[in-house]
Amino acid sequence: MTNFHRRARIGAGIALFTTAALGLTACATGAEAPAAGSDEVDAAAATSVEDFGSFADLEDAAKAEGQLNVIALPRDWANYGEILDLFAEKYPEITINEASPDVSSAEEIQAAKTNEGLDTAPDVFDLGLTVALQNTDVFAPYQVQTWDEIPDALKEPSGLFVGDYGGYMSIGYDSSKFDAPESLDDLKGAAYKGAVAINGDPTQAGAAFAAVGLATVQSDGTLDDFQPGIDFFADMQKAGNLLKVDVTTATVASGETPVVFDWDYLNASHKADNENWEVVVFDGTGYAGYYNQAINKDAPNPAAARLWQEFLYSDEVQNLWLKGGARPARMEAMTEAGTIDADLSAALPEVPSETVVPTEEQSTNAGTLLGEKWAAAVQ
Questions:
Q1: How far apart are CA 298 and CA 117, in angstroms?
Q2: CB 163 within 8 A of CB 292
Q3: pTM, two decimal places
Q4: Which residues are registered as beta bridge partners of 354?
Q5: Is 117 exposed, middle or buried (0-12, 13-18, 19+ CB in 10 A)?
Q6: In this predicted model, what pLDDT tens digit does every residue of 116-154 receive, in sequence order?
Q7: Three state DSSP letters for the chain
Q8: How far, in Å, CA of 298 to CA of 170, rounded?
Q9: Alpha carbon distance 172, 266 (integer Å)
Q10: Topology of the domain comprising 168-288+354-377
């Protein structure tokens, strides 16, 4: 477990991963890229813009493909709607195919395997760390032009997957129906009967996995053993407080999920749908994490996949993630360069002074434990 001691607002919101979590061996592409500027560029083997010759050559190759397949990108998640629309505006020659916006990280990988060799396979992924670590054989290494400005602790050395945006696990609640919970144990009380939901299944979804992690450390446990977190949700189930409904904008707006464990930037976004929605990040030990970008090694549109990565790690889109309440991977470098949106940065919510993030080993062990015990604990 890595501890980060920081006070109040996170300005340079970096290094929520540990270097150990990304200590993988760099992978070869399996083929040498043709000479820069060559008409024979193999986009699927390209590991940087230089393999295309120039950024303009990458853009031309992506436009020639004319398609980009994305998956698991809800438009109300971390401002992805505005991000997708901006890409479409910049590159009208490329049609974005938005598949299955509400599936889990694990289901993204399954979609790639199910559609392998088909034009419908996802070109790119947006994944929780545990699923990314488990599926590196599905990814193609790529390093964007702003690679050096992404903290080492947020990227697999060869570029198989790279942290993109992050935040803190929080509790969102309808303040017209509930008082603000002051501690995790409050959620086991009679006032919250049938009201508390998590965002997905923790054996498949990164946000739900993090909810169990938060319950673990808030229950005086450590990330070496997620059992206290599993026990917490088992107690919630026994009390009749755990609501087994997938959380969406619609369920929050309708009141179907009035109390939600989720990332702070996602919970904050629900204010637009429910004016009474408030967000709490508990005092004590906080739980933080980043999602990760990766390219499908069998992407049907490999140039477009790489252009999408370059687009996401540009100043403009990093600030769009910040606009969505998330902390972009290049935040520290952009703060130093003066390219971060200072007003949006200053508006980030208060966070605990102590933050933990699981290492690779802890994530793997927790995933195994959840696979063995979660279903029985909450049935």
A1: 7
A2: yes
A3: 0.81
A4: 5, 285
A5: exposed
A6: 999 999 999 999 988 999 999 999 999 999 999 999 989
A7: CEEEECCCCCCCCCCCCCHHHHCCCCCCCCCCCCCCCCCCCCHHHCCCHHHCCCHHHHHHHHHHHCEEEEECCCCCCCCHHHHHHHHHHHCCCCEEEEECCCCCHHHHHHHHHHCCCCCCCCCEEEECHHHHHHCHHHEECCCCCCHHHCCHHHECCCCCCEEEEEEEEEEEEECCCCCCCCCHHHHHCHHHCCCEEECCCCCCCHHHHHHHHHHHHHCCCCCCCCHHHHHHHHHHHHHCCECCCCCCHHHHHHCCCCEEEEEHHHHHHHHHCCCCEEEECCCCEEEEEEEEEEEECCCCCHHHHHHHHHHHCCHHHHHHHHHCCCEECCHHHHHHHCCCCHHHHHCCCCCCCEEEECCHHHHHHHHHHHHHHHHHHCC
A8: 36
A9: 9
A10: D-Maltodextrin-Binding Protein; domain 2 (3.40.190)
Instruction: Give the closest residue to 296 by CA, choosing from 288, 285, 304.
Output: 304
Whether the per-residue pLDDT at 162 is higher than 60: the answer is yes
Q: Which CATH homologous superfamily contains domain 24-166+289-342?
A: Periplasmic binding protein-like II (3.40.190.10)
Shared fold status for 24-166+289-342 and 168-288+354-377: yes
- Single-letter amino acid code for the residue at 169: M
